[in-house]
Automatic annotation (TrEMBL):
This is DUF4177 domain-containing protein. It comes from the Bacteria. It comes from Alkalicella caledoniensis. Pfam families: DUF4177. InterPro entries: YjzH-like (IPR025234).
Amino acid sequence: MYQYEYVNVTMSGFFGAKSEGHRKIIDEYAAKGFRYVGFIPANMDSHGRYNEIDLIFEKEV
């Protein structure tokens, strides 16, 4: 069985392609024993650019 954590990250920049702090978040969760699994777009604009993504982490329990 796995425990999942989802962390919302706001994208910035003109093209919505730059996130702030995602590497730090991944490192913090790795230190807690979680593994980065991937991301899900949480909010997109009308041009298909990501405004927010959810980083997904898992940990075996």
